[in-house]
């Protein structure tokens, strides 16, 4: 890595420059640094602290952390274990996924604030002298030379920063500047839902993490220790109508769907306590250009359905590190290597997005449209899950482990 003298437009050069310090960017940064490769990660925010990012670490990610020898330390951070996923449909509870048949160290979803997970990765990565994380560095453009992406331009509190790199990685999420500036074509798959996120305090004796489905209403309830993180799924575009009806009416929706919270809905004091997140599903037709690769949501925006987005992003990072560490180290990187990453990750991405679309269109959207009835019972297929608990392993494997799970193949250089 090199830095120009202060005063001039600042410049760095490195082997791999990663735009975005989310799950994909931080994991790739860590793995490449661990393999002895110079890495610069640019993150536009000053910290990782963000409310209502996905906070689910699935068995597949836990297993990779175990392969890295980091699992025990990670699980020392505050988290809640979810060994089974239960959904209450009408008034009938159904266990739809049971992770307990998986290897015991990874037989649950860990609910952990994403900023804790990212801070953890950043701390581990910083042990390598060849790792550099620059916060408040907002990537605004790509540096292009002779048809090849040769780095990025970012704005920082100290002024403009140019980072030149043999490989630039766009890990800057679903509104990726990198993919837009690279002109990579996006295939919009669409999502019929948006989500209101909020938190309400949790008291002893309250029900565990799960879903609540009733006519016209779909809630995910996540136990975060002393509070619940609530996701209220709504039909796309209906947020304005709901907000116009006023906060008291909104509190009533929450109280009706989740009666155990009826005495606490007043904690939603203003619309500032309720965050609207727009859901999209899309993917790039081609994830790369000479000198550039996109991974994570920048390559394929995921819906919150199944809470798999973080885990897929991490898997992309692991696959990218497995395939790219050696050509990066040897200085032999070609566009073909980048194509190999897309080739490896396209199948799991397509299958997962397909399942999310199916769940959105066949399960969530019909529930939201069904505002006429007052009662609701689980369909017979879903009832089978309670009668034959072995069936609960199928969704557990799909959600918890996923398609083509990755394993760590990149090497570890000695830490300082
Ligand atoms: C409403 C909603 C709820 C979700 N809930 C879950 C869940 O519970 N579990 C789950 O697994 N997934 C969930 N997802 C999906 C999940 O959030 C994403 O799939 C996942 O975070 C993708 O990781 P990433 O690293 O690719 O991108 P991101 O997490 O989006 O990270 C991108 C990073 O890049 C930074 N960045 C952006 N632009 C720039 C720039 N120009 N310069 C520098 N840095 C930049 C951002 O600040 C961010 O830190 C949810 C998605 C939505 C929409």
Topology:
Blueprint: E1 2-3, E2 10-19, H1 23-34, E3 39-43, E4 56-57, H2 59-67, H3 71-74, E5 80-82, E6 84-89, E7 92-98, E8 109-111, H4 114-125, E9 131-135, E10 138-145, E11 148-156, E12 159-170, H5 177-182, E13 186-188, E14 193-201, E15 210-214, E16 217-223, E17 227-235, H6 239-244, H7 247-257, E18 275-278, E19 282-284, E20 288-289, E21 292-294, H8 309-330, H9 335-369, H10 380-387, H11 393-401
Parallel strand pairs: 2-3, 2-12, 3-9, 6-15, 12-21
Antiparallel strand pairs: 1-2, 4-8, 5-8, 6-7, 10-11, 11-12, 13-19, 14-17, 14-18, 15-16, 16-17, 20-21
Helix pairs in contact: 1-4, 1-8, 8-9
The structure holds flavin-adenine dinucleotide.
The site of flavin-adenine dinucleotide has 35 residues, from helix 1, strand 3, strand 10 and helix 8.
If you had to describe this structure to a student in words, what would you say it looks like?
The structure is a single chain. The protein is α+β, with helices and mostly antiparallel strands. It is 32% helix and 28% strand. It is built from eleven helices and 21 strands. It has helices at 23-34, 59-67, 71-74, 114-125, 177-182, 239-244, 247-257, 309-330, 335-369, 380-387, 393-401; strands at residues 2-3, 10-19, 39-43, 56-57, 80-82, 84-89, 92-98, 109-111, 131-135, 138-145, 148-156, 159-170, 186-188, 193-201, 210-214, 217-223, 227-235, 275-278, 282-284, 288-289, 292-294. The strands form four sheets. Strands 1, 2, 3, 9, 10, 11, 12, 20 and 21 form a nine-stranded mixed beta sheet that branches. The protein has a seven-stranded mixed beta sheet with strand order 7-6-15-16-17-14-18. Helix 1 (23-34) runs parallel beside helix 4 (114-125) and helix 1 (23-34) packs parallel to helix 8 (309-330). It starts with a strand and ends in a 15-residue tail after the last helix. The relative contact order is 0.18. The model has no long low-confidence stretch (mean pLDDT 92). The site of flavin-adenine dinucleotide (FAD) has 35 residues, from helix 1, strand 3, strand 10 and helix 8.
């Amino acid at each position: 890595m090199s830095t120009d003298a202060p005063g001039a437009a600042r410049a760095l050069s490195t082997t791999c420059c990663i735009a975005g310090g989310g799950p994909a960017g931080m994991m790739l940064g860590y793995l490449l640094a661990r393999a002895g490769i110079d890495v610069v990660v640019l993150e536009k925010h000053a910290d990782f602290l963000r409310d209502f990012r996905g906070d689910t670490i699935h068995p597949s990610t836990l297993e990779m952390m175990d392969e890295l020898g980091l699992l025990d330390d990670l699980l020392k951070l505050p988290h809640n274990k979810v060994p089974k996923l239960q959904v209450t449909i009408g008034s009938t509870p159904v266990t739809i996924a049971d992770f307990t048949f998986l290897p015991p160290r990874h037989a649950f979803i860990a609910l952990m604030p994403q900023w804790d997970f990212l801070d953890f990765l950043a701390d581990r990565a910083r042990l390598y002298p060849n790792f550099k994380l620059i916060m408040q560095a907002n990537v605004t453009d790509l540096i292009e030379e002779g048809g090849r992406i040769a780095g990025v331009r970012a704005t920082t509190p100290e002024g403009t920063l140019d980072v030149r790199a043999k490989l630039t990685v766009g890990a800057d999420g679903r509104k990726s500047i990198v993919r837009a500036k690279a002109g990579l074509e996006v295939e919009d798959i669409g999502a019929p839902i948006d989500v209101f996120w909020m938190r309400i305090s949790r008291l002893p004796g309250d029900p565990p993490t799960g879903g609540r489905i009733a006519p016209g209403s779909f809630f995910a309830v996540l136990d975060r220790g002393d509070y619940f993180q609530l996701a209220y799924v709504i039909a796309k575009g209906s947020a304005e109508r709901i907000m116009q009806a006023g906060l008291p009416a909104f509190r009533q929706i929450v109280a009706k769907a989740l009666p155990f919270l009826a005495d606490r809905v007043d904690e939603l004091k203003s619309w500032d306590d309720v965050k609207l997140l727009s859901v999209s599903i899309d993917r790039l037709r081609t994830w790369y250009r000479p000198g550039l690769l996109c991974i994570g949501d920048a390559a394929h925006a995921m819906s919150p359905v199944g809470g798999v987005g973080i885990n897929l992003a991490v898997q992309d990072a692991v696959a990218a590190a497995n395939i790219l560490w050696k050509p990066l180290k040897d200085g032999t990187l070609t566009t073909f290597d980048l194509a190999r990453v897309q080739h490896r990750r396209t199948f799991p991405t397509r299958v997962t997005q397909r399942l999310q679309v199916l769940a959105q269109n066949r399960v969530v959207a019909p529930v939201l449209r069904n505002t006429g009835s007052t009662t609701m019972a689980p369909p017979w297929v879903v009832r089978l899950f309670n009668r034959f608990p072995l069936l609960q392993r199928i969704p557990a494997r799909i959600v918890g482990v996923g398609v083509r799970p990755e394993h760590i193949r990149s090497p570890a250089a000695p830490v300082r």
